[in-house]
Hints:
By secondary structure, the chain is an all-alpha fold. It has helices spanning 5-59, 79-98, 105-110, 112-138, 150-171, 175-189, 191-206, 219-242, 248-283. The protein has nine helices and no strands. Helix 1 runs parallel beside helix 9 and helix 5 runs antiparallel to helix 6. The protein starts with a helix and ends with a helix.
Amino acid sequence: MSIYLPWLERSNAAANGHSAAIARKLLHGSSVAWFAVALAGQWLFACYIALLYLWPVFTGQYLNANQARPITGFVAGDFSGNLMLFAHLLPAAVLSSCGLLQLLPQLRQRWPQLHRWNGRLFLTLGLCGAVTGLYLTWVRGSRLSDLGAIGITLNGLLIPLAVGLAWFYARQRNFVLHQRFALHSFLLINGVWTFRLFLMGWYLLNQGPNGNNDTLDGPADLILSFACYLLPMAVAELWWHCRRSQQPWLLWSGAVLMCGGALLTAVGVVAAAMMMWGPRMMALW
């Protein structure tokens, strides 16, 4: 029996190595698929913001920026509130246009200067969005309900923490941890975008609201308001560990989860385009 043990061990090792190689390719492919879907959704969202909010600012028709907002928008005479409103909305177009590019390894390797300055711009605007969002929600009162605003408020409070850690580790030249917290910063800064995908995807799959209400504090609304950043961050952590692992079961788990994430994102982008962004942009024409 002992004669066959080395052969069996080599065979098992070869089988595990082959399985790990396939899983690693699937993990990479699903990551690329998620990136492509998310990029399409981000750029579509950037066009939406530009048409509905940037254009009224450039043309001086500020009241037109209220047509897509169910809560407090532009108010004549409210200088500080309006300033905070547009300081929150306008950077979102830039964030959606350039943020996802920071995750491209080719950008870091070929154009490190562009990566650094684009990253500084993204993190700075992300901080600005968090601060102005908290002000609009709790000082100006731009919320549909207190309970429904808690999830997104926690999102806003976590952004400075993640941005600070990403910045700190970049200054320490610990680029492994910098990339890790920069990824979490990206997911947190885009939490409201992800909430739109989750909410519209939920409506699409249920063929209407199910556990939702007009003040966004129904049971489904509350779950989605926390899941829109906690779930992507959990997936990102698993992906982070999986891509460095040699264990086939862990690689397969990460690959399956990333495939699900790419599919869920695709459903959300399609649903948001059909039910929110598309109709409002078409109405302008």
